[in-house]
């Protein structure tokens, strides 16, 4: 298979392969997604919504942001911050979710709004521009380039993300004859070829720490960036909660024989494929999140486990059914149109089951939250 997509990116990948002989899939993914101004996430290409490549829950209906604002209001009273209540959103996309949260806080929880600071962590120049235009009426919104900009133990409030960890570049590994190999790519006659090299100590230690024995013959992803990032969050948070919204599973469900190719998928114009080497720089590349890893490595950085749930239970506990009931009382076309959108957020088999929420806390005495009052049945997919 030949590399197709942005010519400039392909030349950069080819040059790196020429210099090094072969590059890891992780390095390839990093260039395809994050190379300055050319990568999928760093370019000005439309990514989210009808004209993009995928939808997020915040794109479906404003209720998603409204209910998150309700959750943040509960957290405000739980931690009773001495100074500003900080809401830190990492990877805010076009800013729609931030808008819905801020609008709700301003109109329904104004006392909290006045004592808050909404911080968007964003690297994309394109997204920063669109976010600033959208959020210009919210004086508490501010932008920071990276989480490293904060001092350790300086954030009081909540750090949250929606579909962030699935976009981190990952290593691909495969176990053969009881030996763990990492997948590298090279070129032969302009065709992509995969090369297997024995996995590094970091990757081997990752599985050992999580007590995971990878089944023979299957491929899987190792997200070392996620491991480091959740620990960075733990170091920066002084007091409060961490809410991670994404799709994935615990270790005992993620690494199964019935996923022999792992979980990496590409999204391009609302179609998914496993054609990683096509549409380079023009398509999203994602992998399922290992929530057991976020829990384990978060605990090493002082983040205590609160709950692991799915989006359906999370939103129902926060009152999405009350919103639907009110819309039914309106009995008009626009209300029923919204009801159909809201259903997509909670229905089993769709977003309601696909997306999971991991909640962690640090230095909080009372960690009981309304959003996790009722949890899903404790099947393998929720034993974290």
Provide key terms for this protein.
alpha/beta; five-stranded antiparallel sheet; Rossmann fold; 384 residues; 15 helices; SAM-dependent_MTases_sf
Short overview:
With 384 residues, the chain is an alpha/beta fold.
If you had to describe this structure to a student in words, what would you say it looks like?
The structure is a single chain. Strands 2, 3, 4, 5, 10, 14, 15 and 16 form an eight-stranded mixed sheet that branches. Strands 1, 6, 7, 8 and 9 form a five-stranded antiparallel sheet that branches. The protein has helices at residues 7-20, 25-34, 57-60, 63-79, 96-108, 110-114, 125-134, 201-209, 224-236, 251-254, 291-300, 311-318, 320-330, 333-346, 351-354; strands spanning 23-24, 85-90, 116-121, 141-144, 155-162, 171-176, 179-188, 191-198, 219-222, 237-249, 265-268, 271-273, 284-286, 289-290, 304-310, 355-362. The chain is built from 15 helices and 16 strands. α4 packs across α5 (96-108), α9 (224-236) packs across α11 (291-300) and α13 packs antiparallel against α14. It has a single domain (7-311, 356-382), classed as Rossmann fold. The chain is of the alpha/beta class and 384 residues long. β6 and β7 (179-188) form a beta hairpin.
């Amino acid at each position: 298979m030949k590399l197709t997509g942005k010519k400039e990116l392909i030349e950069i990948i080819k040059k790196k392969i020429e210099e090094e002989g072969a590059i890891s899939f992780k390095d390839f993914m990093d260039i395809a997604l994050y190379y300055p101004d050319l990568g999928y996430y760093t370019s000005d290409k439309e990514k989210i919504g009808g004209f993009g490549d995928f939808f997020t829950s915040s794109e479906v209906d404003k209720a998603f942001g409204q209910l998150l604002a309700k959750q943040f209001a509960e957290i405000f009273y739980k931690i009773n911050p001495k100074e500003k209540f900080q809401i830190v959103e990492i990877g805010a996309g076009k800013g729609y979710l931030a808008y819905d949260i801020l609008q709700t806080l301003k109109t329904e929880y104004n006392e909290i709004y006045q004592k808050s600071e909404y911080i968007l962590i964003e690297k994309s120049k394109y997204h920063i521009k669109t976010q600033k235009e959208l959020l210009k009426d919210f004086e508490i919104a501010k932008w920071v380039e990276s989480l490293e900009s904060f001092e350790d133990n300086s954030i009081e409030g909540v750090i949250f993300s929606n579909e962030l960890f699935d976009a981190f570049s990952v290593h691909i590994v495969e176990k053969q004859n009881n030996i763990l190999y990492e997948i590298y790519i090279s070129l032969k006659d302009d065709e992509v070829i995969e090369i297997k090299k024995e996995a590094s100590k970091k990757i081997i230690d990752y599985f050992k720490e999580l007590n995971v024995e990878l089944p023979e013959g299957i491929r899987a992803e190792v997200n070392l960036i996620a491991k480091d990032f959740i620990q960075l969050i733990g170091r920066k948070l002084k007091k409060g909660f961490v809410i991670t919204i994404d799709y994935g599973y615990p270790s005992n469900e993620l690494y199964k024989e019935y996923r022999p190719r792992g979980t990496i998928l590409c999204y391009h114009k609302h179609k998914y494929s496993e054609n990683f080497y096509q549409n380079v720089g023009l398509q999203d590349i994602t992998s399922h999140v290992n929530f057991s890893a976020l829990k384990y490595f978060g605990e090493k950085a002082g983040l205590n486990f609160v709950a692991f749930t799915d989006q359906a239970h999370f939103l129902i506990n926060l009152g999405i059914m009350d919103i639907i009931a009110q819309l039914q009382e309106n009995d008009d076309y626009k209300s029923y149109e919204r009801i159909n959108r809201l259903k997509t957020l909670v229905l089993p088999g769709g977003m309601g089951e696909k997306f999971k929420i991991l909640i962690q806390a640090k230095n909080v005495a009372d960690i009981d939250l309304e959003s996790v009052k009722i949890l899903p049945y404790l099947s393998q997919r929720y034993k974290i």
